[in-house]
Fold:
Amino acid sequence: MTIFDIMGPVMVGPSSSHTAGAVRIGRMARRLLGSQPVRADILLHGSFAATGAGHGTDRAIVAGLLGMAPDDERIPSSLWLAEGAGMAVTIRNGEIPGAHPNTALLAVTNTEERTLTVSASSLGGGRIRVNAIDGLEAAFSSQLPTLIIRNEDRPGMLSEVTRMLSDSGANIAAVQLYRDRRGGLAVMVIECDEPLPPALRATLSALDGVVRCTYIDMEEG
Amino acid sequence: MAFDSVSALLEAAKDAGSLWRAVLADDCRDRGVPESESLERMEALWRAMVRSAADYDPRRRSASGLSGGQAAKVSALETPLCGAYMQRVIAAALAVAEQNACMGRIVAAPTAGASGVLPAVLLPLQEREALSDEAMVRCLYTAAGFGQVIAARASISGAEGGCQAEIGSASAMAAAALVQAKNGAPEQMAAACAMALQNVMGLVCDPVAGLVEEPCVKRNVMGAVNAMACADMALAGVGSAIPCDEVIDAMGAVGRLMPASLRETGQGGLAAAPAARAIGERTRRAGAEG
Structure:
């Protein structure tokens, strides 16, 4: 823990978990979708549902979807700004069985009518964790540069990807693998020590069997 | 490597010539950055703290309607029992804590809920004694150094250790920072930190309706006033019979003994009062409608 985990961050209140963390959840969904959504359906669970209105959790998530950072003073007016930006938003409370108390489930749709669902939790102090993407388990916190690769579940995919990473000199900090069923759709979450060059990301995206490759390097969080 | 004991912090202060310099040097080592980077970052936090109080708008209200306008009321009091200077400290603590409750921009120090304590004691002091921004940045390094030890040995989170870990930690950090502002010795900073924590030992985190408003906004005032009293005691030579590290450990142990209902769950303490339950019902309904 550095001294700047004690002093700071500069943020819009009132709560690092229910406000700052919620902004980060929205930003994460935006990054995973690859663009600003035109529609966002937000489900709040647990403490997010019980105290979200008072903590501005709804506005914070929408602010993140609009690309704002946790210290953006426009966060309180994000619902109006979303309207102006052509983003249709619905927010409701609900139960997600077994989820962390501060969890949100977001379904975000882009201009091409592609919808992505993201489940994420706010763990305290503004830190967040993604739990699932499109219903597939995928736990990561994005404190390191992270690759999220969705691919067909077949032999050799992982070694192909890790070989390309090692060829480029990237050091892998952690790898997680998930799949819905044998031979179905799989997710690789690969956290690296250093940012990855854009060329490598493009090559990985073009790899046979890769459905989608998303890269998250949230310097600011 | 971050400091994990006040005694190590005091040792490092001897070598570095001052405690804030030891914290600065450690940060540069820890993150592999030059001094200029660390100093610029801390200066930016100080500027943000100044703004968090300066931007206070007494007309603003929180989503629940529980917070807003309180600092202005205290400022308008004509003959404050505490005197004019303490009146400003109290008003500043309320102003920043209300800013936080009303979705304004603040500096978490160490948390958003306790963000009023440090600016409340430092801003009026800078004005009264015409201290430079550099002097205030030295205070923030001092506060951060003690805060780091508290986080390592106990906790700075209300959900983990109750309000003693949140407002209590902010108050202890502020007390040490005030001793730095008055050019006191590192041992006096440790004593101020220890006494401030002693005074809030056992304080529970019991936010009404689960919101960072009641009693949190007013506990920022308590944290600031406590910090000033403890800094004055330390500067006068009053010490703590229990070493600072042992006080921090005791606070951590008390936090671990606290039931979950008293650790930011909005279940026990004040949050369990009938009036608090009614407020909770009201804010939930408003949320469902909005």
